[in-house]
Amino acid sequence: MTRKLLLLNGIAIIFAVYHHAIYWAITAINFWGHRFVSNATPQLLSSPNLFALFLRITDQIGGVAVPAFLFVSGYLYGFSLNRQIIGQSYRFILKRIYYLLIPYFVWSTLTVIFRIIEGENYPLARLIRVYLFGEADGPFYYVPLIVQLIVLSPFLFRAAKKYPLLSIGFVFSFQLLSTITWYFKMLNITPLTPLIFFNIFKSSYLFSHSLWFLMGSLFFIYRENIITMIKPLQRWTWLLLILLFISSQIEFQLLINANGSNWLNTQSSILTKGLYTLLILAYAVFGEKIPSYQKIEYIGANSYGIYLTHVIVIEIAARLLYHIFPYLLGQTVILLAVLVFMGITIPLALMNFSKKFSIKPLYSFMWG
Questions:
Q1: Where are the domains positioned within the chain?
Q2: What share of the chain is helix, strand, coil (3-state, %, to 5)?
Q3: Are 246 and 60 in contact (CB under 8 A)?
Q4: Residue 33's pLDDT is what?
Protein backbone atom coordinates (compact mmCIF):
# COMPACT_ATOMS: atom_id res chain seq x y z
CA MET A 1 0.00 0.00 0.00
CA THR A 2 2.90 2.37 0.71
CA ARG A 3 4.11 2.25 -2.92
CA LYS A 4 0.57 2.81 -4.16
CA LEU A 5 0.32 5.90 -1.94
CA LEU A 6 3.70 7.19 -3.20
CA LEU A 7 2.43 6.72 -6.75
CA LEU A 8 -0.77 8.61 -5.89
CA ASN A 9 1.34 11.39 -4.35
CA GLY A 10 3.44 11.54 -7.53
CA ILE A 11 0.38 11.71 -9.78
CA ALA A 12 -1.14 14.34 -7.47
CA ILE A 13 1.88 16.68 -7.55
CA ILE A 14 2.01 16.47 -11.36
CA PHE A 15 -1.70 17.34 -11.40
CA ALA A 16 -1.08 20.22 -8.96
CA VAL A 17 1.64 21.70 -11.16
CA TYR A 18 -0.61 21.33 -14.22
CA HIS A 19 -3.55 22.92 -12.38
CA HIS A 20 -1.44 25.96 -11.50
CA ALA A 21 0.15 26.11 -14.97
CA ILE A 22 -3.33 26.52 -16.43
CA TYR A 23 -3.56 29.86 -14.58
CA TRP A 24 -0.73 31.16 -16.78
CA ALA A 25 -2.26 29.69 -19.93
CA ILE A 26 -5.51 31.54 -19.12
CA THR A 27 -3.52 34.69 -18.27
CA ALA A 28 -1.81 34.50 -21.67
CA ILE A 29 -5.17 34.15 -23.46
CA ASN A 30 -6.91 36.92 -21.49
CA PHE A 31 -4.15 39.52 -21.09
CA TRP A 32 -1.12 38.71 -23.26
CA GLY A 33 -2.83 38.35 -26.64
CA HIS A 34 -0.90 41.34 -28.02
CA ARG A 35 2.31 39.25 -27.78
CA PHE A 36 1.25 36.45 -30.15
CA VAL A 37 -1.10 35.48 -32.99
CA SER A 38 -3.45 32.60 -32.11
CA ASN A 39 -7.04 31.41 -32.35
CA ALA A 40 -7.10 31.16 -28.54
CA THR A 41 -9.14 34.18 -27.42
CA PRO A 42 -11.03 35.12 -24.21
CA GLN A 43 -14.31 34.59 -26.08
CA LEU A 44 -13.25 31.05 -26.99
CA LEU A 45 -12.94 30.15 -23.29
CA SER A 46 -16.54 30.99 -22.44
CA SER A 47 -18.24 28.77 -25.05
CA PRO A 48 -18.41 24.94 -24.97
CA ASN A 49 -15.95 24.22 -27.80
CA LEU A 50 -13.24 21.54 -27.94
CA PHE A 51 -10.46 23.91 -26.86
CA ALA A 52 -12.37 25.25 -23.86
CA LEU A 53 -13.57 21.75 -22.90
CA PHE A 54 -9.99 20.45 -23.01
CA LEU A 55 -8.87 23.16 -20.58
CA ARG A 56 -11.91 22.79 -18.33
CA ILE A 57 -11.72 18.99 -18.15
CA THR A 58 -7.97 18.76 -17.56
CA ASP A 59 -8.08 21.60 -15.03
CA GLN A 60 -10.92 19.89 -13.18
CA ILE A 61 -9.03 16.59 -13.06
CA GLY A 62 -5.86 18.42 -11.97
CA GLY A 63 -7.79 19.88 -9.04
CA VAL A 64 -7.94 16.43 -7.40
CA ALA A 65 -4.33 16.96 -6.27
CA VAL A 66 -4.96 18.46 -2.81
CA PRO A 67 -7.78 15.99 -1.95
CA ALA A 68 -5.38 13.18 -2.93
CA PHE A 69 -2.59 14.65 -0.74
CA LEU A 70 -5.02 14.83 2.18
CA PHE A 71 -6.19 11.25 1.66
CA VAL A 72 -2.58 10.00 1.64
CA SER A 73 -1.79 12.06 4.76
CA GLY A 74 -4.88 10.78 6.56
CA TYR A 75 -3.90 7.18 5.80
CA LEU A 76 -0.25 7.64 6.84
CA TYR A 77 -1.10 9.48 10.05
CA GLY A 78 -3.63 6.76 10.83
CA PHE A 79 -0.84 4.23 10.40
CA SER A 80 1.59 6.28 12.53
CA LEU A 81 -0.85 7.04 15.35
CA ASN A 82 -2.37 3.57 15.59
CA ARG A 83 -1.97 2.15 19.11
CA GLN A 84 -0.35 5.34 20.40
CA ILE A 85 -1.59 7.24 23.42
CA ILE A 86 -2.20 11.01 23.12
CA GLY A 87 1.15 11.96 24.65
CA GLN A 88 3.10 9.74 22.24
CA SER A 89 1.02 11.01 19.32
CA TYR A 90 1.86 14.64 19.98
CA ARG A 91 5.59 14.03 20.36
CA PHE A 92 5.53 12.53 16.86
CA ILE A 93 3.21 15.28 15.55
CA LEU A 94 5.28 18.20 16.86
CA LYS A 95 8.39 16.86 15.14
CA ARG A 96 6.51 16.45 11.86
CA ILE A 97 4.99 19.93 12.05
CA TYR A 98 8.46 21.40 12.63
CA TYR A 99 9.72 19.93 9.35
CA LEU A 100 6.62 21.16 7.53
CA LEU A 101 6.69 24.73 8.82
CA ILE A 102 10.38 25.60 8.40
CA PRO A 103 10.39 25.12 4.57
CA TYR A 104 6.97 26.79 4.44
CA PHE A 105 8.33 29.91 6.19
CA VAL A 106 11.43 29.90 3.96
CA TRP A 107 9.50 29.72 0.68
CA SER A 108 6.77 32.08 1.88
CA THR A 109 9.48 34.64 2.68
CA LEU A 110 11.18 34.16 -0.70
CA THR A 111 7.80 34.60 -2.41
CA VAL A 112 7.14 37.81 -0.45
CA ILE A 113 10.58 39.14 -1.45
CA PHE A 114 9.78 38.31 -5.09
CA ARG A 115 6.47 40.21 -4.84
CA ILE A 116 8.15 43.23 -3.18
CA ILE A 117 10.62 43.37 -6.08
CA GLU A 118 7.57 43.44 -8.39
CA GLY A 119 6.27 46.46 -6.46
CA GLU A 120 3.75 45.00 -4.00
CA ASN A 121 3.43 46.33 -0.45
CA TYR A 122 3.31 44.15 2.67
CA PRO A 123 2.07 46.00 5.76
CA LEU A 124 2.29 44.09 9.05
CA ALA A 125 -1.32 42.84 8.92
CA ARG A 126 -0.77 41.35 5.46
CA LEU A 127 2.51 39.72 6.52
CA ILE A 128 0.75 38.08 9.46
CA ARG A 129 -1.86 36.67 7.07
CA VAL A 130 0.89 35.45 4.72
CA TYR A 131 2.38 33.20 7.39
CA LEU A 132 -0.75 32.39 9.37
CA PHE A 133 -3.11 31.56 6.49
CA GLY A 134 -0.76 30.70 3.63
CA GLU A 135 -1.36 33.84 1.61
CA ALA A 136 2.12 34.18 0.10
CA ASP A 137 0.60 32.61 -3.00
CA GLY A 138 -2.60 30.69 -3.74
CA PRO A 139 -1.39 27.09 -3.20
CA PHE A 140 0.33 27.89 0.13
CA TYR A 141 -3.01 27.53 1.94
CA TYR A 142 -2.33 23.80 1.97
CA VAL A 143 0.36 24.03 4.66
CA PRO A 144 -1.72 25.73 7.41
CA LEU A 145 -4.54 23.35 6.45
CA ILE A 146 -2.48 20.17 6.81
CA VAL A 147 -0.93 21.46 10.05
CA GLN A 148 -4.43 21.97 11.50
CA LEU A 149 -5.46 18.48 10.42
CA ILE A 150 -2.29 16.93 11.84
CA VAL A 151 -2.92 18.66 15.19
CA LEU A 152 -6.48 17.27 15.16
CA SER A 153 -5.43 13.86 13.79
CA PRO A 154 -5.31 11.94 17.13
CA PHE A 155 -8.91 12.96 17.84
CA LEU A 156 -10.05 12.45 14.23
CA PHE A 157 -8.44 9.00 14.20
CA ARG A 158 -10.16 7.95 17.43
CA ALA A 159 -13.50 9.33 16.20
CA ALA A 160 -13.11 7.47 12.91
CA LYS A 161 -12.29 4.26 14.75
CA LYS A 162 -15.15 4.48 17.23
CA TYR A 163 -17.87 6.28 15.23
CA PRO A 164 -17.01 5.89 11.52
CA LEU A 165 -20.40 6.78 10.03
CA LEU A 166 -21.06 9.63 12.45
CA SER A 167 -17.61 11.17 11.91
CA ILE A 168 -17.79 10.99 8.10
CA GLY A 169 -21.32 12.43 8.16
CA PHE A 170 -20.18 15.23 10.46
CA VAL A 171 -17.28 16.40 8.27
CA PHE A 172 -19.34 15.97 5.09
CA SER A 173 -21.97 18.34 6.50
CA PHE A 174 -19.24 20.95 7.06
CA GLN A 175 -18.04 20.49 3.48
CA LEU A 176 -21.59 20.93 2.20
CA LEU A 177 -22.13 24.10 4.26
CA SER A 178 -18.84 25.60 3.02
CA THR A 179 -19.91 24.90 -0.57
CA ILE A 180 -23.19 26.81 -0.23
CA THR A 181 -21.36 30.11 0.30
CA TRP A 182 -19.37 29.49 -2.90
CA TYR A 183 -22.59 29.14 -4.89
CA PHE A 184 -23.83 32.43 -3.42
CA LYS A 185 -20.65 34.09 -4.70
CA MET A 186 -20.72 32.47 -8.15
CA LEU A 187 -24.37 33.40 -8.69
CA ASN A 188 -23.92 36.92 -7.26
CA ILE A 189 -26.53 36.21 -4.59
CA THR A 190 -26.62 38.11 -1.32
CA PRO A 191 -27.88 35.64 1.28
CA LEU A 192 -30.93 36.49 3.34
CA THR A 193 -30.29 37.62 6.91
CA PRO A 194 -31.16 34.19 8.45
CA LEU A 195 -28.49 32.63 6.17
CA ILE A 196 -25.67 35.02 7.10
CA PHE A 197 -24.28 32.36 9.47
CA PHE A 198 -23.11 30.46 6.37
CA ASN A 199 -20.30 33.02 6.14
CA ILE A 200 -18.66 31.20 9.07
CA PHE A 201 -17.79 28.44 6.61
CA LYS A 202 -16.82 30.78 3.77
CA SER A 203 -13.04 30.98 4.09
CA SER A 204 -12.21 27.87 6.10
CA TYR A 205 -10.32 25.20 4.20
CA LEU A 206 -10.59 23.07 7.33
CA PHE A 207 -14.36 22.84 6.86
CA SER A 208 -14.19 22.27 3.11
CA HIS A 209 -11.26 19.81 2.96
CA SER A 210 -11.17 17.72 6.16
CA LEU A 211 -13.39 15.05 4.58
CA TRP A 212 -10.51 13.68 2.48
CA PHE A 213 -8.09 13.50 5.41
CA LEU A 214 -10.67 11.60 7.45
CA MET A 215 -11.32 9.34 4.44
CA GLY A 216 -7.65 8.36 4.48
CA SER A 217 -7.79 7.46 8.17
CA LEU A 218 -11.00 5.49 7.66
CA PHE A 219 -9.44 3.61 4.77
CA PHE A 220 -6.48 2.66 6.96
CA ILE A 221 -8.78 1.41 9.74
CA TYR A 222 -11.41 -0.35 7.63
CA ARG A 223 -9.47 -1.06 4.44
CA GLU A 224 -10.53 -4.69 4.01
CA ASN A 225 -14.17 -3.94 4.86
CA ILE A 226 -14.33 -1.02 2.41
CA ILE A 227 -12.72 -3.01 -0.41
CA THR A 228 -15.05 -5.96 0.22
CA MET A 229 -18.08 -3.65 0.18
CA ILE A 230 -17.19 -1.54 -2.89
CA LYS A 231 -15.36 -4.00 -5.15
CA PRO A 232 -18.55 -5.78 -6.33
CA LEU A 233 -19.93 -2.34 -7.26
CA GLN A 234 -17.16 -1.55 -9.75
CA ARG A 235 -19.46 -0.98 -12.74
CA TRP A 236 -21.77 1.25 -10.70
CA THR A 237 -18.76 3.20 -9.43
CA TRP A 238 -17.53 3.93 -12.95
CA LEU A 239 -21.06 4.83 -14.05
CA LEU A 240 -21.40 7.27 -11.15
CA LEU A 241 -18.00 8.77 -11.99
CA ILE A 242 -19.13 9.37 -15.59
CA LEU A 243 -22.41 10.94 -14.42
CA LEU A 244 -20.60 13.23 -11.95
CA PHE A 245 -18.09 14.20 -14.62
CA ILE A 246 -20.74 15.09 -17.21
CA SER A 247 -23.01 16.88 -14.75
CA SER A 248 -20.08 18.91 -13.33
CA GLN A 249 -19.17 20.09 -16.85
CA ILE A 250 -22.79 21.12 -17.50
CA GLU A 251 -22.75 22.94 -14.16
CA PHE A 252 -19.53 24.72 -15.19
CA GLN A 253 -21.17 26.12 -18.33
CA LEU A 254 -24.32 27.16 -16.48
CA LEU A 255 -22.27 28.97 -13.83
CA ILE A 256 -20.19 30.74 -16.48
CA ASN A 257 -23.39 31.89 -18.19
CA ALA A 258 -24.81 33.14 -14.88
CA ASN A 259 -21.57 34.69 -13.62
CA GLY A 260 -20.60 36.43 -16.85
CA SER A 261 -16.91 35.44 -16.69
CA ASN A 262 -15.03 33.26 -19.16
CA TRP A 263 -13.34 31.04 -16.56
CA LEU A 264 -14.16 29.68 -13.11
CA ASN A 265 -12.30 27.60 -10.58
CA THR A 266 -14.90 24.91 -9.86
CA GLN A 267 -12.99 23.01 -7.16
CA SER A 268 -15.53 24.27 -4.64
CA SER A 269 -18.49 22.84 -6.58
CA ILE A 270 -20.25 20.05 -4.68
CA LEU A 271 -20.35 17.97 -7.88
CA THR A 272 -16.62 18.40 -8.42
CA LYS A 273 -15.91 17.53 -4.78
CA GLY A 274 -18.03 14.42 -5.18
CA LEU A 275 -16.07 13.54 -8.30
CA TYR A 276 -12.76 13.92 -6.41
CA THR A 277 -14.01 11.77 -3.53
CA LEU A 278 -15.08 8.98 -5.86
CA LEU A 279 -11.90 9.18 -7.97
CA ILE A 280 -9.72 8.76 -4.88
CA LEU A 281 -11.89 5.92 -3.56
CA ALA A 282 -11.79 4.19 -6.95
CA TYR A 283 -7.99 4.43 -7.01
CA ALA A 284 -7.71 3.05 -3.47
CA VAL A 285 -10.15 0.17 -4.04
CA PHE A 286 -9.61 -0.80 -7.68
CA GLY A 287 -5.98 0.24 -8.11
CA GLU A 288 -4.37 -2.85 -6.61
CA LYS A 289 -3.06 -4.04 -10.01
CA ILE A 290 -1.63 -0.67 -11.07
CA PRO A 291 2.02 -1.32 -11.97
CA SER A 292 4.86 0.43 -10.19
CA TYR A 293 6.33 3.54 -11.83
CA GLN A 294 9.56 4.36 -10.01
CA LYS A 295 10.00 7.83 -11.52
CA ILE A 296 6.52 8.93 -10.47
CA GLU A 297 7.02 7.36 -7.03
CA TYR A 298 10.28 9.31 -6.76
CA ILE A 299 8.40 12.50 -7.64
CA GLY A 300 5.78 11.52 -5.02
CA ALA A 301 8.45 11.08 -2.35
CA ASN A 302 9.61 14.66 -3.05
CA SER A 303 6.15 16.14 -3.54
CA TYR A 304 6.25 18.57 -0.60
CA GLY A 305 9.40 20.31 -1.82
CA ILE A 306 8.01 20.48 -5.36
CA TYR A 307 4.70 21.85 -4.08
CA LEU A 308 6.36 24.71 -2.18
CA THR A 309 8.64 25.77 -5.05
CA HIS A 310 6.79 25.06 -8.30
CA VAL A 311 4.52 28.12 -8.13
CA ILE A 312 7.35 30.65 -8.30
CA VAL A 313 9.21 28.49 -10.85
CA ILE A 314 6.33 28.36 -13.35
CA GLU A 315 5.60 32.08 -12.84
CA ILE A 316 9.18 33.03 -13.68
CA ALA A 317 9.11 30.61 -16.63
CA ALA A 318 5.85 32.10 -17.97
CA ARG A 319 7.14 35.66 -17.64
CA LEU A 320 10.42 34.76 -19.37
CA LEU A 321 8.47 33.20 -22.24
CA TYR A 322 6.43 36.41 -22.46
CA HIS A 323 9.62 38.37 -23.16
CA ILE A 324 11.83 35.83 -24.93
CA PHE A 325 9.54 33.47 -26.83
CA PRO A 326 6.04 35.03 -26.98
CA TYR A 327 4.92 32.81 -29.88
CA LEU A 328 4.74 29.90 -27.43
CA LEU A 329 2.12 31.73 -25.34
CA GLY A 330 -0.43 31.15 -28.10
CA GLN A 331 0.35 27.43 -28.35
CA THR A 332 -1.58 26.54 -25.22
CA VAL A 333 -0.94 22.79 -25.09
CA ILE A 334 2.80 23.20 -25.70
CA LEU A 335 2.93 26.07 -23.18
CA LEU A 336 1.31 23.86 -20.53
CA ALA A 337 3.73 21.00 -21.26
CA VAL A 338 6.72 23.34 -20.93
CA LEU A 339 5.47 24.87 -17.66
CA VAL A 340 4.67 21.47 -16.12
CA PHE A 341 8.06 20.08 -17.17
CA MET A 342 9.87 23.06 -15.65
CA GLY A 343 7.62 23.08 -12.57
CA ILE A 344 8.66 19.48 -11.79
CA THR A 345 12.26 19.25 -13.00
CA ILE A 346 13.66 22.56 -11.70
CA PRO A 347 12.53 21.95 -8.06
CA LEU A 348 13.88 18.38 -8.28
CA ALA A 349 17.19 19.66 -9.67
CA LEU A 350 17.44 22.25 -6.88
CA MET A 351 16.63 19.58 -4.29
CA ASN A 352 19.26 17.19 -5.67
CA PHE A 353 21.83 19.99 -5.82
CA SER A 354 21.23 21.05 -2.22
CA LYS A 355 21.27 17.42 -1.05
CA LYS A 356 24.58 16.82 -2.76
CA PHE A 357 26.40 19.98 -1.74
CA SER A 358 24.89 21.05 1.56
CA ILE A 359 24.60 19.66 5.04
CA LYS A 360 21.51 17.57 5.83
CA PRO A 361 19.76 20.01 8.27
CA LEU A 362 19.87 22.75 5.63
CA TYR A 363 18.18 20.42 3.13
CA SER A 364 15.43 19.68 5.66
CA PHE A 365 14.90 23.40 6.31
CA MET A 366 14.54 24.08 2.58
CA TRP A 367 12.51 21.08 1.43
CA GLY A 368 11.06 19.26 4.42
A1: 1-63+291-368, 70-246
A2: 85, 0, 15
A3: no
A4: 76
